[in-house]
């Protein structure tokens, strides 16, 4: 069943739109606070569609993601009880917050680097950093390094892959899409129990 190929074609068209950078940077900002969709989903096709601007897109995504991280930190430190806690309870994220807090205790600032570079939900850790009173500037610097490495890696892969990457992606996009959904479902049910 080919549902991802038409979506991929639409995303590639949207990535060439004049307002695409604005939406990329907005997504990068809100993804660090509450948005569930990773920035890479917009960054990769934009870097592929406009390879001459890929590094600018990666830098902008990094800056706005870290600014969003600072906002998440503020929410955790100053507005946890009135804003964050009701949201966590509504979404059923209590377990994720407990896990994040235990990771902070065990690994300290390295958990920010891990969360900023890997697919682990960064937003949980930006808010938890504020809740736990992590020192702000080391938090920002570590987030900047991790996010920058991730977004520049994505942009770099698109630039280096070029048209060959675009051809391969368009050929295998449906298989990749279904594998991602299956992996997410397995991860969800594994973590749920």
TrEMBL record:
Residue span, VTT domain: 55-158
InterPro entries: DedA_domain, VTT_dom
Protein name: YqaA family protein
Signal peptide: none
Keywords noted in UniProt: Membrane, Transmembrane, Transmembrane helix
Bilayer-spanning residue ranges: 20-41, 53-75, 103-122, 134-160, 172-191
Entry-linked Pfam families: VTT_dom (PF09335)
């Amino acid at each position: 069943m080919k549902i991802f190929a038409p979506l991929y074609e639409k995303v590639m068209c949207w990535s060439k739109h004049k307002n695409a950078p604005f939406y990329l940077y907005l997504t990068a900002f809100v993804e660090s606070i509450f948005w569930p969709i990773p920035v890479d989903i917009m960054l990769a096709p934009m870097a592929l569609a406009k390879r001459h601007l890929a590094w600018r897109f990666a830098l902008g995504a990094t800056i706005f993601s870290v600014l969003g991280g600072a906002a998440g930190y503020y929410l955790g430190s100053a507005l946890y009880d009135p804003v964050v806690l009701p949201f966590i309870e509504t979404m059923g994220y209590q377990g994720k917050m407990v896990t994040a807090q235990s990771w902070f205790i065990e690994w300290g600032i390295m958990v920010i680097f891990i969360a900023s570079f890997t697919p682990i939900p960064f937003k949980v850790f930006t808010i938890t950093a504020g809740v736990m009173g992590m020192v702000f500037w080391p938090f920002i610097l570590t987030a900047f390094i991790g996010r920058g490495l991730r977004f520049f890696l994505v942009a770099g892969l698109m630039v280096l892959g070029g048209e060959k990457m675009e051809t391969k992606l368009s050929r295998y996009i449906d298989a990749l899409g279904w594998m991602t959904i299956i992996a997410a479902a397995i991860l969800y049910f594994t973590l749920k129990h």
